[in-house]
Amino acid sequence: MSYRPRVDPTEYAREKARKIEAAKRRREEIARKRAMEEGDTAPDPSPDPSPSRSYQEPSRSSPIAAERMQQKPPPPTFTPSPNKFAPSQQWLVGPLNPEGTEFDPAMFEKNRQQSGPTEDSDRPSTCLAINHSQTECCIGSSDHASYTISTRNGEPRSRLYSRNAGHMDWVSAACYLSDNRVMTGGMDGKVCLWRRGGSDCRDLYGEQGSVSVLSSLSNSTPIAASAGYDGSVIVWNCSSSSPSETKIENRRKQLPPITAFASDSEGNLAVSGSNNGLVSLWDLNKGVCLKAALGKHGTQVQKVINDENCGEIFYTAGVDGKIGMWDTRSQLGSATGNEIGATVSTSPFTSPSRSGAAPISGLVNVDDNHVLAAGGNDVALLDKRMNLQVVGKPMGGHKKPIASLCLGGGGLVSFSGSIDGMVIAHDLRTTRPIYGMGANKKSASFLGTTDTRLIVTGDDGHALVYAFS
C-alpha cells in the first residue's frame, strides 16, 4: 500500500487562524499610525467580534475618511439565504473519517488479473457523476472502463467494461439519467447506455467524433445531450428500448471542438464553449444552433453553468482567466462593447505580482444569493447583481492552482481541489479556510458532494469518500 500524506484538519485550522490573527494585528497597527499622522483619533485596537468581511463605516471625525466614504460605495457582502438550512457542525469541523474511505479500481478481480494483486491502479480518472438519489457515483477512467461505487461507504459496485461492452479509448464523460441508468462517452466517439448493474450496454453512435460532454436534460425523463469534437450537439431520448437521436449542427460552418456545455433546468436552451474560446447558443427543442458566435473568450472555455434563478442567463469561464455573464434575452457579441462579447465579464484573479490572469477551473452557483464561486489561483465570490464584482477578498490556502470546485454543507462550505492533491474547505460566511485534506497523490481534478458525503478523485486513479454524518 502506497503512502498517502494527510493533513490534520484541526491543526491546519489552528495554523490558518494564527496567521489571520497576526495579519489583522499588523493591519490595525498600520491603521493607527496613519490615523495619528492625519491627526485623527486612533482606531479601537480591540478585535472586531464579527468574523465577516462586511463593509465597516469609517469614522466621520476625519475629513479624509468622510470624503472617502462619500466617493467609494460599500463593497458587496455575502449573506446566507434564510430559505436554506445552515450546514451541520460537522461540515465546519471536518470529516468523521479524516483519512477517507478509499476506492482503488484494482479491487476488481479483472483488474487484479491484469496488474497483480499488490499493484495499485495509477490510471488517471477522467470524469465524475453522481446519480439523482445521491446513492451512487460513476468514475470514468483512462483505462477505458468506468466504475460505480456507493457514495455512502465507497464500496465498489460494478465495473462498466467487458470484452463485448464498453469503450475502446478513454472514458471522457459520464452522467446519470433520470431513471439512474449510467451513460458514458469516450474518445472513441461512442456513447454507451448501460443497463442497471453494468453487465451490458447499448452502443450509440452519433458520428460526432470524440465525446467531450454528457449532460442529463431532465429529472423526470431519460433524456441527455452529448457534445463532441466535431462541434455538434446530439439529444438522446432514451425513454424507449430503442433510443432516438437528434443531431444539431451549425448550418453554415462546422464549429470547433466543444469543451463545455450546460442547459437550463427544462432542457430547452443551452450554451456551449469551444477549445478556441467560441461561445454558442442552442435551442434543443427546435434542434437548431441559434447563434454560432455568441461571443469569444481568448482561449479555451473550461466551464459553462446556468443561472439558478433565470434559465436564460448563462456563465462561462475560460483559460484566459475571464468569467462572462450571457443574458440571452438581450443583444450579445460586438453590440455589447464587451471584450469577449458577453453582457458582463470580469477577471477575478488578475494580480500585479502574477503575469496575466489565472485560468478558471471551477465555477458554481452559491445557494440562491445571486453569488458565484470561482476557482483559479484562489477561490473568489462574485456578486451577479453588481457586474460580477468580487465579494471581499479571494479565499486563499492553496499553494498550487485550483483544478476543481464544489459546494457542501447546505451550500455554505466550498471545497476546492488543487493540482498538488490538496482539498481545502472554506466557510463562505467568513471566507476563511477551516480545514484541509491531502486527498490525492497528484491532482484532485474532480469533486462531488451529496447531503452527507464528499467524493474526491483525480490523476492517481483512486477515489476517497469523506463522511460528514
Automatic annotation (TrEMBL):
PROSITE patterns per the UniProt record, alphabetical: WD_REPEATS_1, WD_REPEATS_2
One family name in Pfam for this protein: WD40
UniProt superkingdom: Eukaryota
Amino acid composition bias (Basic and acidic residues), ranges on this chain: 1-37
GO CC terms of this entry: transferase complex
Sequence segments annotated as region (Disordered): 1-104
Residue spans of the WD repeats: 258-292
Transmembrane spans: none
Keywords: Repeat, WD repeat
Classification via SMART domains: WD40
Entry-linked Gene3D superfamilies: YVTN repeat-like/Quinoprotein amine dehydrogenase (2.130.10.10)
Regions of compositional bias (Polar residues) in chain numbering: 53-62
Name of the molecule in the record: Uncharacterized protein
